[in-house]
Design goal:
Low-confidence stretches: none
Mean pLDDT: 81
Radius of gyration: 33 Å
Number of domains: 2
Largest sheet: none
Number of helices: 6
Strand content: under 5%
């Protein structure tokens, strides 16, 4: 009796070893011989950042002295929209650009120039003034 039960146990162990070996071989083959996963490429959406800078300059800052001589919007409109005069705004932009790398225009990973300090500050200040989401200032940022 003990020899037959021992034979049965040996047979069961052999079968289990075969099954385990089969599954290990299958898993190994799946891992090692698997076809490489093709790399997904990221899609690129043209944002026309330069167009946003150009539009911003034309709307509010169209001459070298940042006067209102050639700008589309008046000084009063600027003051109402930004809650400060243009001179203070320009000093803020210059200070942020000088002391904080985030506000400095840099090239991105594709080698294209990012947003200018004027665009970033315009967005930040308008967000603070109106307390709304970034979508509301997208006209100059081209997010």
């Amino acid at each position: 009796m003990s020899s037959s039960s021992s034979d049965e146990n040996d047979e069961i162990e052999e079968r289990l070893d075969d099954i385990i070996e089969y599954f290990i071989d299958e898993i190994y083959d799946d891992i090692v011989e698997a076809e490489p996963i093709p790399q997904r490429t990221r899609s690129y959406t043209e944002r026309h950042r330069e167009g946003g800078q150009h539009q911003l300059s034309n709307d509010y800052f169209n001459d070298d002295n940042f006067n209102d001589d050639h700008s589309i919007y008046s000084i009063q409109t600027f003051r109402r929209r930004f809650r400060m005069n243009k001179g203070l705004f320009i000093r803020i932009v210059d200070g942020l650009e000088q002391f904080f790398p985030f506000f400095q225009q840099r090239k991105d990973a594709t080698g294209r120039w990012g947003l200018t300090a004027l665009q970033k500050c315009t967005a930040a200040i308008r967000l603070l003034v109106y307390g709304k989401s970034a979508d509301t200032v997208d006209e100059y940022l081209r997010l």
